[in-house]
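Why do we bother with a discrete structure alphabet at all? Because it lets us treat a fold like text: something you can write down, compare, and reason about line by line. To make this less abstract, here is a complete entry for tRNA modification GTPase MnmE. Read it the way you would read a sentence in a foreign language you are learning: slowly, and without expecting to understand everything at once.
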Amino acid sequence: MTDTIFALSSGPLPAGIAVVRISGPQVRDVLVELVGKLPKPRVMTFCDMKGKDSAIIDRGLAVYFPGPATFTGDDVAELNLHGSRAVVARILEELASIPGLRSAEQGEFTKRAFLNGKIDLTEAEGLADLIDAETEAQRRFAMVSSVGGQRTLYEGWRTRLICARAMLEAELDFSDQEDVPGSVSDTIKCDLEQLAADVGKHIAGFKRGEILRSGFDVVIVGPPNAGKSSLLNALAQREVAIVSDEAGTTRDLIEVSLDLGGIRVRLTDTAGLRDATGKVEAIGIERAKARAEQADLVIQLHDLTLADVGGAMSGALLVGSKSDLAGSVKFDGMRISTRSGEGIASLLDEIESRARGAVGDVSDILPARSRHMEYLTRAHVLLRDAIGGFGGQVELQAEALRLAADQIGRITGQVDVEDILDVIFSRFCIGK
Ligand SMILES: Nc1nc2c(ncn2[C@@H]2O[C@H](COP(=O)(O)OP(=O)(O)OP(=O)(O)O)[C@@H](O)[C@H]2O)c(=O)[nH]1
Ligand SMILES: [K+]
Ligand SMILES: [Mg+2]
């Protein structure tokens, strides 16, 4: 028999309410023991929860969800308690003292949902993203995955691959008979080409998915004292980085997260670029350069009070700082001042519009993880091989299609995934 697991599923204590979730074969017994009787299924029932000594631990609400129509697929109970540390500690202690019950591991409720066939891996990962979501675009993206957007797409592709293979093999079996139309391969080829195009287009959307999930990556670079840290603080509207008139103040990367129109933007301040005067600064400058190379957008800051604008990095957004001191100096870029506030709002608008452009249509179904990309890329190669035809060797074509279908099945978890389950579910929080 599987263990019955329990955990605090709500957030940090103290809080108004705490929710303890229990899942597994002993849920009914536990409820009877704790609240005296089995509450009516799916009805929140007001009750006293008592310990073994019959003393009341807390008075709250209990819900009983009989399996299999539950999140995990097993019997589930939820206890709504007063959100106090002592109440929750006492209830968890009481539950732990019942033989066969134990604390849930990270993501174990969701893992059971997967193992019981309630959700596939992309939906499980979508739920993890939904819980982590901080911005509206992250929420929408996670929502699509968690309700089966990717699952439906991938299962459809897998079915097409399996069908195409079956048709090819049928053709192989009957190839010596005259009544099998020779055009079968043409039909298959046509469908596979369409599929390869769909997969290719989907793969090309990965970067957009990454930006939606992890944020649009903006890095501020420029010479020492250009006002990079001042700009970071102005854009974040709080004092995150140290500002001083001493050149070489910032030595390390300083990152803040912004929510611009629902899109997460990660903004990084860096060490001023110059020939370093010391070892630590030199490391900082190396980090700045490396960081700028990975960025989705580089803001190159130039001090307008200095004559030499220097060369602009290709693709960088050129911004002139300290416009309050610069009068009517000619400059081919945006002008800002963290003193007067000039240009700060426009710069935020510009970053938002670039982030929006990079993300595109947020309702598209995109690859959500590099794990998916690995399998998608392999499936795409195998599919192209199959279309290539192996010089007419139908067996090899069919085998390539079988392998491609397996790759897709690994994304959703339909094909053996034992080895990756722990990696996926250990990233969840406890109680999910
Ligand atoms: N007048 C004026 N001074 C500014 C402005 N922005 C920054 N400063 C000043 O410029 C100096 C350097 O600012 P920082 O933000 O530390 O510059 P930085 O580019 O981060 O410098 P490093 O970290 O040393 O590379 C400080 O004395 C700031 O007060 C501005 O818009 N107007
Ligand atoms: K400085
Ligand atoms: Mg600085």
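What the structure line is telling us, in plain words: The domain at 123-205+366-425 is CATH 1.20.120.430 (Four Helix Bundle (Hemerythrin (Met), subunit A)). Residues 149-173 form the longest helix (25 residues).
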